[in-house]
Structures are given as C-alpha cells and as structure tokens.
Amino acid sequence: MSGLSDSVAVAAVSAEPQWNWRAPDLLERVPGRAPAAILTTLLNDLHLRTTQNGAVQGRELIGDAELARFIELFAQHRLTARASAILVPHVLVMLREYTAGLQHLGAALPFILRMFTELCSRAMSIDTASRTPELGALYAQLVDACVGVAARTPDGETVDRVLTCVADMVVPQLAHMVPDFERQVGVATHLMQQIISPALRAHMTGGYSGPAQATTQTQHFAAVLQSLAALAQQTSLAKVWRRDVWDFYGDAKFFSEQTMAPTLAMHWKQLVRQLLVTDKDRVADLLSRIAASAPGLFANRVYEAQTRALALRRLSFAVWAGTTNQYLSHLPHVQERLVDILKNAPLPVVQCEVFLCLRVLLCRISNHHMSNFWPMLLTELIRLCLLQLAREGPEDREQAQLFLAACKFLDLLFVLGTEDFLIHQWVFITDTIDALYGSPSASHALLDRLSTRLLSMPSTRRKSAVVRDNSYPPALLTRGEDSNLVFSSVAAIDPALGVDLGTTELQMLGGRPLKRPIISVRSVASIKELDEFVHNASAQTFQEAFTMAEPDMEYIDALLMSDLMFLDFTAANSQSPVLSPAGFVSDFEL
C-alpha cells in the first residue's frame, strides 16, 4: 500500500494547481480503504520517512514535502466530518511525535505545518466531544516549534514558506484551532519574538532583514509583513503587535526604498489602518509631532523642517490608509496644523508635504467637509503662481519641486471638479470655449499666463517631464477590467510645444468614461518640465467637462501611493528613483 500511495501522490501533486481527481479515486478503490484508513497509512509512511535517517522505499519517487502536500490536499477534498473523528487519536499521536523532531525536516517543514493545520482544522470542525483541549494545545506547540526552527534555519525559502503558511492558514484559524486565548497570545507572541520583531529591528538599524540565503530581502520582508498583517486582522491580538508596528512607523527609515517597496506598500497600508483603528490615541500623537518646536539659539532650521516634513508624511500616509471620513473628527486639528505651517513661511520641503497631505484629504474626506480649507488653499496657490510669473534669475530646484507639488494639487482639483473649486477655477485656467480655439486677447488665467512665459524662455530644456513615461509604477493599481481603452488627444494650441503633447486620456470602464491627472512624475529639475501641464490644463479640463467623465479614483489612488512611499532628504538635489515596472503587476499603462 505504501508504494502505491507514493505513486498516486506523485500523479496528484504533479498536477497542481489543478487537483487530479483520478489519483484519490484510485486509492479509494482499494478494498477496505476508506479515506480515514488511507490517511492513516499515508501519515504512518510520512512519519517513517521523517524519523529514519536511512533510505525509505519510495523516497526516490516522491519527496517528503510532496507527500505532505498530497496528504493535505486529500484531507481537504475527500475527508468527511465522520472520518475526521476517527483520525483524531492518530493525529494526536503524530503531533506529539513531530513536535519533538521538527529540526530534522528541512525543506519539508512548511508542508508538514500545512498538513497538520488542515488535519486539525477538520478535526476541530466536528462535534465538541472531539475538540479536546489536548488537540489545541498540541497544535499550538507544533506552530511554536515550526516558527522556532524556521527562525534558526539558514534556508530563506523555507522561512518564507513557513511565514506564508502562518499568514494564510494558521493565524486566520487560530481562534478556532486553539480555543484557549492564553495559548493564542502565546503563539502570536512567539511569532513576533522569533521572526517578525527581529526583521523590523534589522530594517530600523540598517541591517539585513532576512536569513543568509533568502532569495531577496524584499521577498522575505514581504512574507514577514504578510504574517504581521494576518495578526493585525485578529483584533483580540492587537496588544501583541501594536507596539512593534508603531515603533517602526515612527522610525525615520519607514519611508525608505527598502521598507516601502511597491510590493510592500499595501501591507503597510493595512497595518497602519488597523493600528490606528485599534489605538485611536495614536492619531493625536501624529498631529502633535507636526507642531513647530520652540525656537532656540542653536536651532537647526533645516533639521526641524525635515522633522516636520516626515511627521506630515506619516499623517498623510495614515489618512490615505484609512477609509473615507475615518479621520473626520480630527479634520479641524489637521487644518489648524496646516494653516500654522503655511503662516510661518516654511522651507519648500515642508510646503511640498502640505500639498501632498491636501491631495490625500481631497480623496479621503467628503468634499462638503473641506469648505473651510479653500481660503487658505486659494491664497497659497495664487501666491505660488504669481511667484513663478515674477521670478527672475537662475532657477532653484527646491522651488521647482514646490511648484510641482502645487501643480499636482491643481491637477487633482481639475480632475475631481468639486463644486467648491469650480467657482474659483477661472483664476487658474480658461474655462470657456477659448480654451480649445484660443482668444485674440491675452488670457488672465494664471496657468495660461505661465504657459506664455515658459514659451518665451530660452529653449534649453529637455522634453517635458509630465508626459506619462512610466515614472509611476503601474502595479500600484490593482488588476481590473481595462479592455476598452480610448485615447483622445488635445491639439496643441502653439506649435512651439511640439507634436507629442496631447494629454487628454479617457479610460472607458463599464461604459463610463474616466479621467486622469496629467502629471505623472515625482520630481523635476526645472519648472519648464511642467510646460505640458500648464499648457494643456485649460483645454483638457474644458473638453472633459463635455464628456461627463468621472475621476479614475483607482489611478489617482495609485499616484498617491507612489508619492507617499519614499521620502529621502539626502536625494533632494537628485532625481527620485525610477522604479522598474517589472516589480509590478497591472493591466494599466501609465
């Protein structure tokens, strides 16, 4: 029976992810072999393999990991509730045996954990008589032992597989599998102490976060965050992980390229959201860090500006990670902090963060709650536009970055088309038919005037940086229907801008046209790189008004995520890192 089991397991497992039903059918046709008896035989065979150092018959056909995977799948698809009750005594014996000898399993360790998780889950699903406290206690010991062995193994792939199993199977069922709450806390605490907390501390200190032979640092850290996110979904275990997440969130390296890689950003979004839901006092702490420190004789203005910018970025990320109007009760305090910042003439790095925070607020707070912001917003936007119109002499890169942040905010306002802004948008763009066909008289709109000024400047610039050139990573967008993409270009009013500056892009999704912002870069070296936006903003906004297009909020959210991920003050005078599109998965093209 053992040789037949191995051959059948080879046939079934090799067919993954499609389950090969012929293999279990063949086993069940053996006379006197019910599913429970088959599983008992397979478990005995697996135990014999993993406890004996010598060669075991059939090992050359299928490895221990494959056999464990077959047992898991067979139990999942063929084991009934009645048969599960028969298996409970046998599973108890096996749990005791394996918990004492996990260190010899090697690469089969995560598969053994998956197998016992499935078997114990089946056993716990039957009547309460079979849900013995001993089964839950032994399973908790098995999980602790697996985590402990994984934390010490040099094989990074094994660690990542154990963490994936913990995130996908163990933690979601922990309350069901381990009824004793104290044991649940013990399992979660052991996971934090052995793997998750060391990885977080290694990131904060600049050390390597994964095992010596991990495939990549990012891949291992993604598995760590996946397990941490699974723990965060269990509200009863919040005290186990909150402190570590908050400490890491408050660290200066949180917005580094290694920590906030695109593959990790969604995990952090979920973690920060759960953190602030379970501990609401943390929001007040975030707001307090934005307040300006008392002036002193030896105060370092640049350092203080960077500290406030980092505090603003944390607040922006927290609001972005939340749901609509989740932080509505804190909105007056946020407004107070932002007004205070702008009144004190901050450095450009802080002002850039103010505009980023305002973009997040526009997407996370209902429009009618933002009415008190408009006097401040309009005053600051007009001031920056007039400053660029009156500027003389060489360009300042920091001022160019600040004007980029302001233009991104205006770009979002044009796309959202909120009622409160529509009555003021004539100040910035031409909102009549003249936007398409021109006017014999000069436009008084600020962006149109700035466009004329940019055209009159020496032609020493590179190609406009606003053109969608994959500066934003596409896979920040989730997969979605994108099969009917329609492009409609706005003709350039002035031939001096070239022939490739059409920018209006409408995406048809479910029969509804969607509109997107024009700007798709994180940084510029000169305001001349924004000429496409200032030139086409009037025409695009006017044309989209007639298409009845709605904002593409998924795209806008992706742009926000990309801007929120990184904050590197050491690279203030260089281009922001351009991420490889290979690290993303999306059906969108930016």
Using only C-alpha atoms, the radius of gyration works out to 30 Å
The coarse silhouette is elongated
Number of strands: 4
Described by strand count, sense and barrel closure, the largest sheet is:
4 strands, mixed
* Structural class by sheet pairing and helices: mainly alpha
The unreliable regions are 1-17, 208-215, 460-465, 467-506, 571-590
- N-to-C SSE string, H for helix and E for strand: HHHHHHHHHHHHHHHHHHHHHHEEEHEH
Roughly how much helix do the residues carry, as a percent range?
55-70%
Q: Which strand order do you get reading across the main beta sheet?
A: 1-2-3-4
Describe the protein's architecture and organization.
The two termini are 58 Å apart. This protein has 24 helices and 4 strands. The longest helix is centred in the N-terminal third of the chain and has 25 residues, at 181-205. It is mainly α and 590 residues long. Helix 17 (348-364) runs parallel beside helix 19 (397-416). Among the domains are: 80-199; 418-590, no CATH class. It is 58% helix and 2% strand. Strand 3 (512-515), helix 23 (531-547) and strand 4 form a beta-alpha-beta unit. A 4-stranded mixed sheet has the order 1-2-3-4, with no helix packed on it. It is elongated.
What's a concise summary of this model?
The chain is mainly alpha-helical.
Helix and strand layout, with pairings?
Blueprint (H helix, E strand, L loop, with lengths): L1 H12 L8 H7 L6 H17 L12 H15 L2 H19 L9 H16 L8 H20 L3 H15 L3 H4 L3 H25 L11 H16 L5 H12 L12 H17 L2 H10 L10 H21 L9 H13 L4 H17 L9 H17 L6 H20 L2 H4 L11 H4 L8 H11 L28 E3 L17 E5 L2 E4 L15 H17 L2 E2 L1 H13 L25
Parallel strand pairs: 3-4
Antiparallel strand pairs: 1-2, 2-3
Helix pairs in contact: 1-2, 1-4, 3-4, 3-5, 4-6, 5-6, 5-7, 6-7, 6-8, 7-8, 7-10, 8-11, 10-11, 10-12, 11-13, 12-13, 13-15, 14-15, 15-17, 17-19, 17-24, 18-22, 19-23, 22-23
